[in-house]
Amino acid sequence: MSSTAVALSPGLTTFLRNLKITSIESSIETLISLLKRRQIRQSHSCAVATAYLLMRVVSMFRDAEPEKLIERVQQVGRLIVAAQPREMVVGNIVRRVLGLIRDEAENERFRGLSAQRQKQPPPPPSDTGSDNTRPHTPQSAGDTHPAPTRLEIPLHHAPHPRRRGGHHNELKTLSPFDAYGRVSSRPPLMTHPSFSAVMSTPVISMFNLLSEPQSESPQPASPIASTSPTDQPGNSPKDFKAEVIDGITEIVDELGQVDDQIAAYALEHIHSNEIILTYTASVTVQKFLLKAAARRKFTVIHVESYPNSHKDSHAAVTGTLTGDEEGLATDSFQKPLIALGITVILIPDSAVFALMSRVNKVILGTHSVLANGGLVAAAGSRVVASAAKVHKTPVVVVSGIYKLSPVYPFDYEALIEYGDASAVADYKYSDVVEGVEVMNPLYDYVPAELVDLYITNVGAHAPSYLYRIVSDHYRTEDITF
Question: pTM of the predicted model, to two decimals?
Fold first, then answer.
């Protein structure tokens, strides 16, 4: 009975199943309700739901103008962000999708500008009697050294030969003194085999050599030249949306591979005979340790994280954790760390400071990462990081890039979410604790100075380097949408 109730309870799985068969407005309202009720809670689940919803929004949008699509995505993004402001990954995915749309719009404008330039024909050939050319005067057979052609160019109007790199080689055939009409101290190389070919063509003025092609021409453009890439049948406005949808699909693929990509760095940071302390049953941390356990032998001290995550911590240690953050079945935890020969010690939260002096490294998961290098993690993470700071123990945080938010913690108290107080003190003891305010924070804010290293799916970074990653992944105009 309980399994049936769990299967029928709304969550990420039911939302993705109903996303294709319900209307877009109904899907938006469903996700807003799930976020408000905290039926989709974990960062990875919220990111996946947001990415699939925005993919549906883009695919169902009928207007071909990128500006209208940006307004539509901004509208949907504001609604789902307002439903749960503390889930910062929702805003991160919206920003990345907006950046994709703007990038594709710029590419479309660039391709349209290139096509417009291709539609313009080349300038017409100049007449032989014009000022820019001089007719070739054939030389007699007895003239061994004919007089060199002099270019009538004033000294103050002479163009610099290196201003246009494409014509620099052509100007090297003329002596600088010959170009200004002076007598050169070095005789011209008229005996070179290419000199006859040069003299057989009209001499073009240096002004024409360095000038840009004319943008307007009196001759009409041909139908073939007037066909631009955007006018072709294969380059319709639908291709713009297809490119955006492909970009969102890449984001979804990244979300599915992020834990495995982070785990690939495990052997570089976990060494044999180390004692590693971890907190809560983070899926990313568990995969990271499992990857290292295949080649290394070490000891893990697992803090149970009472009262919100202690059951999951016990399940991760004993190998009965059968689901990931989304509640979906996975094969990664059918073989726990103890099955690979790793010694795992489960301790209560109160014993962290006493055992920290024996720990070589602390590895933590996170709920979200802020632009200043701080993080929002499970309640109790700040105590663990502070104890590590006192004992000079390095703190390593494993997190995907999708959790990195461009938000600064000006008011970090507003980032803390509180859960059910009955997990701390049961309601049946309410008469005993009358007059006492019981609080159950779900998250902690950990300052950047308590973190030594971030390991993401794109490498390892210091906390002070995160602002550069923010500038690479989020456009400035998408920070506040």
Answer: 0.72
